[in-house]
TrEMBL record:
Name this protein carries in UniProt: Major facilitator superfamily (MFS) profile domain-containing protein
Family: Belongs to the major facilitator superfamily. Sugar transporter (TC 2.A.1.1) family.
Keyword list, A-Z: Membrane, Sugar transport, Symport, Transmembrane, Transmembrane helix, Transport
Principal location listed in the UniProt entry: membrane
Localisation: Membrane
Length: 460
């Protein structure tokens, strides 16, 4: 928004006024990128603290703390008088993201029955896409509110965070978390409530047994470094790296910038980002319907073909027709770019987007679950930080070739999903080791008992 740029980033606003001089570089500013990326750096560090809070206080309290941090961050940003206050608000908001992204996927995986765990967990990603869509719509209308529309857009987050805060008083704690903290009677009561039946003895005993094993592990982060713990850890971290290097956040964060680059006006660019938000939302619904039917791997591999083709087409069109000092693409070419972006977003939204959170939340055993998921969250935030901080500079330096850069990563993602990613649909969380990792042609080699590994280490 021009009013926002004038107040905090006047040099960027001046570049924007002279956009014809260089289409690809008009928004290249490290402080502007820091406004976007600071949130994710804060979330990276906060995720490890959130892991401990999840263990000691439970998922419910971690979600409540996230909502309070969201409210504080939104108020700081909406009331900002200089870039430092603006970025401090973004950092506080980012700590909330670290807490929320740690607790919510775990919460959903632990309350869902195994046969519906995929669909329930993807509700997290579904409501993220709803949030993105709401943000795009708010930005479109707020851009007409001069000169304070940006304050409204940033401050509205506090209202939504307050809804989350109220909701944290109505949700139950997960049976897993209660049993983990030795609240057995309460855990069994909640298990009966969320399953809707009284006969939960088998599942309850399984959770108690897993909890007893978990309590024998005094240092879960150290346990994660054991050979038998590496497969889910490696998978979780690689999923987060690939999720970001597919280029989705470059598209979603900077959709208005991208659409202005190819020739749309300011308002039209914001409206185009609303369209991509709608595509993102409805495609996530597809994932909810398919994930427990066709499985995780099929969705991931199919999406790689789809995303590779669309990224290549966008890169090809821009490379051939949008030069640094040309005005814009032709009307038909610009429409083609928007369509390809939408098809790309479709593929990501029913695969790597939601499954990047689902798979790490369901593959760790109880004793390392919160610690392992903290690595997943922090890896995601680190990669998001790097992309958010670097994208505008990369766009300036690489021009259209940046889309081929992301396409190359998508090829690697497809090979990873085909050869290294096990299928986890319909398998109870606490049976993953026996039924997934010990059966996989690659990862079964890592599945040695801890006693055996300790003996190997002692022999060395």
């Amino acid at each position: 928004m021009d009013d926002f740029l004038v107040k905090f980033f006047p040099s960027v606003y001046e570049k924007k006024l002279h956009a014809k001089e260089d289409n690809y570089c008009k928004y290249n500013n490290q402080v502007l990128q820091l406004f976007t990326s600071a949130m994710f750096l804060a979330a990276l560090l906060a995720s490890f603290v959130a892991s401990k809070v999840c263990d000691k206080a439970g998922r419910k309290w971690t979600i409540r703390w996230a909502s309070l941090l969201f409210i504080s961050g939104a108020v700081l940003m909406a009331g900002a008088v200089d870039p430092i206050m603006l970025i401090c608000g973004r950092i506080v908001f980012g700590i909330g993201v670290g807490f929320g992204n740690e607790a919510v996927p775990l919460f959903l995986s632990e309350v869902a029955p195994p046969q519906h765990r995929g669909a329930v967990n993807i509700l997290f990603q579904l409501f993220v896409t709803i949030g993105i869509l709401i943000a795009n719509i708010v930005n479109y209308f707020a851009s007409q509110m001069h000169p304070w529309g940006w304050r409204f857009a940033l401050g509205l987050a506090a209202g939504l965070a307050f809804v989350l805060f109220l909701g944290s008083f109505y949700i139950t704690e997960t049976p897993t978390s209660l049993i983990e903290r030795k609240k057995y009677e309460e855990g069994k009561k909640i298990l009966k409530k969320i399953r809707g039946v009284d006969d939960v003895d088998a599942e309850f005993n399984q959770l108690v047994n897993a909890s007893e094993i978990a309590h024998q592990v005094k240092h879960p982060f150290k346990k994660l470094m054991k050979l038998s713990s590496l497969p889910p850890l490696i998978i979780a971290i690689l999923l987060q790296i690939f999720q970001q290097f597919a280029g989705i956040n470059a598209i979603m964060f900077y959709a208005p910038v991208l659409f202005q680059t190819v020739g749309f006006g300011n308002d039209a660019a914001l409206l185009s980002s609303v369209i991509t938000g709608l595509v993102n939302l409805f495609s996530t619904l597809v994932s909810i319907f398919l994930v427990d039917r066709v499985g995780r791997r099929v969705l991931l591999i199919e999406a790689c073909f789809q995303m590779f083709i669309t990224q290549s087409i966008v890169g090809g069109v821009l490379h051939a027709h949008l030069k640094s000092n040309s005005n814009s693409l032709g009307h038909g070419q610009a429409i083609l770019v928007v369509l390809m972006v939408c098809v790309y977003v479709m593929g990501f939204a029913w695969s790597w987007g939601p499954l990047g959170w689902l798979i790490p939340s369901e593959t760790f055993p109880m004793e390392t679950r919160t610690a392992g998921f903290a690595f997943a969250v922090s890896s995601n935030m680190l990669m998001t930080f790097l992309i958010a901080q670097a994208f505008l500079s990369m766009l300036c330096q690489m021009r259209a070739m940046i889309f081929f850069f992301f396409a190359g990563w998508i090829v690697i993602m497809g090979l990873f999903a085909f050869f290294l990613l096990p299928e986890t649909k319909n398998i109870p969380i606490d049976l993953m080791k026996e039924r997934v990792w010990k059966q996989h042609r690659v990862w079964k080699k890592f599945m040695v008992d801890d006693d055996d590994q300790n003996a190997i280490e002692a022999a060395k």
